[in-house]
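$ ./design --mode recover --in tokens.txt
reading tokens...
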């Protein structure tokens, strides 16, 4: 696997910038633990943010889990699966209770994340292979334009080799991972793809000999962690944006169909002795392994002394699955919310979100600010001092991260989902509305009093329904590939639904 190990480069002998100065870092760390939440302290945090930005543009890391539910982490109420590092990340940073993924499955969720547009506008609105176009502006392109180094590792799903949607054509200078999401189901692939400006490679196939002939020599997740820490080390003297799209705890569906256990992981530690089914033990082991990887990266940022200049965001692309032999109820993976992956109820789209930035984000904060995947691009752009594209749906959440009042708020949030016909959902204020098929009545729930969406109150609030119907008139532009369809029309279409996740 030495081919994957970047050689020492000119970057490694460049002088330290002031932000890497140990005494300044120590001063910042002292500030973090200095006081309680009051406005005087808040006034101290703000100039620090400006000072950090003035020294060097802050690094931004986005870590994405795959099908991790709202209730799968200890800091979100999980009782059985151990996630000490993510819990620590929340204790040292800000935990969001109302974060929404872009969609309820992989590809459209990532399209919303990367383009700053919800599924009424973003290019990719379903899981079928369909590439981003060159004119689609990604967060990587925005940050690259602001002088950032850009790298992505893991699962891509925004375009196959040879299309306009590959990472190297969408702003990422360094890339290593799976281009196809179906390929990404296999945790022991015999090959992966790599692109690199540094090494002049574009979607070159990287054979993994250790996995040939059914061998299980290299677990891809571990290799992505390795690539991520290398990327940070090589780019530590530059502002960088790194997107780490892990595949845990997604099921290996084909393996699951064959053996009944698609939860593929090197071992089931530390759950081997539990009285659970093997797929559930493996699922827990996968999540704990992911947790350890995130912890190692946080420790590495501290060891490199760049943690006070690096915002790390951790989230998941959609709710928990019922695949590979697991039952999402077993660990209460939806965290008490209604529904799972493929639902537009909260369990399908509400996800964990932890923001960590020692010295800038107040430790142990919990925010009920609504945070959507399409807010990531404008938030990152503001931090980088870049101008976001005009046709986005997101808003910058920098004020929230800094503990300031968030005056800019969404009027409404929107999702559409196109498997077995089109489903739509809207959230405005505390109201959440779901339409299960075109022409069906809107369901209405008050999330403040009924977060599990158990009582449809549509008939009692015609004025809210009228308002949401009005939003729906302007919420979307038509998509050639994903028009609004009834279930009957969807059945007629040959290539839908594809068995990809
Ligand atoms: Ca997913
Ligand atoms: Ca582009």
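writing sequence...
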């Amino acid at each position: 696997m030495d081919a994957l190990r970047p050689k020492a480069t000119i970057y490694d002998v460049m002088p330290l910038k002031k932000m890497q100065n140990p005494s300044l870092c120590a001063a910042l760390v002292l500030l973090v633990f200095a006081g309680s939440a009051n406005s005087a302290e808040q006034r101290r945090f703000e100039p620090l943010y400006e000072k950090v930005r003035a020294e060097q543009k802050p690094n931004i890391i986005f870590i994405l889990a795959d099908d991790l539910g709202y209730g799968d982490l200890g800091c979100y109420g999980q009782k059985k699966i151990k996630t000490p590092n993510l819990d620590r990340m929340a204790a040292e940073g800000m935990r969001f209770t109302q974060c929404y993924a872009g969609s309820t499955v992989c590809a459209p969720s990532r399209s919303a994340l990367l383009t700053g547009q919800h599924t009424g506008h973003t290019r990719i609105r379903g899981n079928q292979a369909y590439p981003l176009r060159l004119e689609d502006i990604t967060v990587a392109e925005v940050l690259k334009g602001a002088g950032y180094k850009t790298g992505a590792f893991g699962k891509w799903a925004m375009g196959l080799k040879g299309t306009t949607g590959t990472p190297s054509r969408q702003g990422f200078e360094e890339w290593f991972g799976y281009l196809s999401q179906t390929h990404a189901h296999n945790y022991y692939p015999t090959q992966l793809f790599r692109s690199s400006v540094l090494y002049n490679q574009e979607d070159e196939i990287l054979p993994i000999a250790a996995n040939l002939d059914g061998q299980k020599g290299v677990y891809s997740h571990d290799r992505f962690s390795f690539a991520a820490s290398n990327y940070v080390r090589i780019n530590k003297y530059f502002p960088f944006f790194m997107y780490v799209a892990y595949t845990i705890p997604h099921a290996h569906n084909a393996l699951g169909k064959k053996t009944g256990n698609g939860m593929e992981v090197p071992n089931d530690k530390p759950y081997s002795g539990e009285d659970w089914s093997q797929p559930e033990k493996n699922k827990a082991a996968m999540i704990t392994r992911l947790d350890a990887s995130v912890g190692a990266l946080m420790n590495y940022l501290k060891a490199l002394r760049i943690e006070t200049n690096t915002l790390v965001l951790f989230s998941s692309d959609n709710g928990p699955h019922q695949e590979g032999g697991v039952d999402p109820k077993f660990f209460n993976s939806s965290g008490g919310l209604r529904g799972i992956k493929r639902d537009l109820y909260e369990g399908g789209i509400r996800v964990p979100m932890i923001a960590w930035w020692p010295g800038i984000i107040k430790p142990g904060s919990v925010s009920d600010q609504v945070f959507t995947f399409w807010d990531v691009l404008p938030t990152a752009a503001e931090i980088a001092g870049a101008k976001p594209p005009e046709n986005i749906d997101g808003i910058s959440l920098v004020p929230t991260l800094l503990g300031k009042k968030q005056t800019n708020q969404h009027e409404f949030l929107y999702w559409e989902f196109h498997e077995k016909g089109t489903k739509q959902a809207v959230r405005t204020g505390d109201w959440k509305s779901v339409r299960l098929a075109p022409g069906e009545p809107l369901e209405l729930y008050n999330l403040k009093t009924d977060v599990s969406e158990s009582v449809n109150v549509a008939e009692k609030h015609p004025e809210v329904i009228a308002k949401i119907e009005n939003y729906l008139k302007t919420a979307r532009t038509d998509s050639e590939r994903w028009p609004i369809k009834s279930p009957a029309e969807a059945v007629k279409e040959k290539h839908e639904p594809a068995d990809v996740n």
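exit 0
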